[in-house]
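Example record

The entry below shows one chain as it appears in the dataset: sequence first, then structure tokens.
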Amino acid sequence: MVAEKTDLNVDAACQVAHALSTNRVNVDMDFFTAVDDLQPRNDTGAGMMGTIEFDSACFYRFSVVNCEQLVKNLDGDREMAQKALEAYVKASILAIPTGKQNSMAAHNLPSLVMTVVRSKGQPMSLTNAFVKPVAVNQGGDDLVTESVTRLDRYFRDMARMYGWNSSDRITVTSIGDLPTLGIESAGGRRVGSLEEHLATLRGVIDGRPADAA
């Protein structure tokens, strides 16, 4: 947007929510010291010391693309809009924050990806699935599996309450056998790889099924 030239403003075709941890997070402290390699031999003190705050969590991320607005923003170029949509979804899946990577090496890709293509109606965020933080009991499933179970159950309840169009495309890709029976019961399709997942988006801009693209 350009505040002083309202005729140049463009409505965004995308909305992105802040990532939300599915579990309660406790912040830890990492104390560190660093020595200057070029300091005088008789100076044995640390060149720098400090603390870094860090935590570990399972995150839920959510974003929305308005395909009609995307086409409009690209001056009606539907082919470019289709390429932009696929590129955006792929980048959203593979994007990892770069902050403190040299210290933490947090290169964790998503364990589950779900896309929903709706011909009408409003988007549905599943953030409220985690109003009560997910907790892992001793001997129970791991945090990721418990989080997916909660997400799956909430999605099924939302689909039951608000209904789901048979024309909507729901695609899920996950590591291993993460539970998505509720999503599949609402018409979701499970695929085995990222490339297969992206292939289901072909033809979205023109309203065509993926197998006809």
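Notes for this example: The first strand starts at residue 14 and ends at 16. The two ends are 34 Å apart (CA to CA).
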